[in-house]
Design brief:
The protein is α+β, with helices and mostly antiparallel strands. The protein has one domain. It has 3 helices and 3 strands. The protein has a 3-stranded antiparallel beta sheet with strand order 1-2-3. Strand 1 and strand 2 form a beta hairpin. Helix 2 crosses helix 3. The protein is elongated. The N and C termini lie far apart (about 40 Å). About 15% of the residues are buried.
Length: about 110
């Protein structure tokens, strides 16, 4: 299904290459070294692709990719600091050190 020019957003579907439709803003919470924050970003869906089993459409959130938080709530810097501390501590101690040093909560399970 080809979208009318007025509804095209410029984001191409990673699966079929068709233009995706902007489905408005979605809020996301992320954890940075400066603490937790939330922001809104555009959410796109493909009108051509639909999963036969689930009925879900292909979607994209380009700003998550740009910021490095696609599929996670942790920024790249938080992940690097966590990895550095975890290299010499237990998961429990790493969580405690991150809380003490950076003021951020990362459970041993995350």
């Amino acid at each position: 299904m080809k979208l009318p020019e007025s509804q095209q957003c410029g984001e191409e579907c990673p699966k079929c290459g068709e233009n995706m439709r902007n489905h408005g803003k979605r809020e996301k919470h992320i954890i940075t070294l400066l603490g937790e924050c939330k922001f809104s970003r555009n959410y796109y869906e493909c009108v051509s692709c639909e999963n036969e089993n689930t009925g879900n459409r292909e979607h994209a959130v380009p700003n998550d990719e740009i910021l490095g938080v696609a599929g996670t709530k942790f920024t790249e810097t938080v992940k690097r600091v966590t990895a550095q501390i975890a290299a010499s501590d237990s998961f429990f101690d790493t969580s405690a050190n991150l809380k003490m040093l950076c003021g951020i909560n990362v459970s041993a399970k995350e």
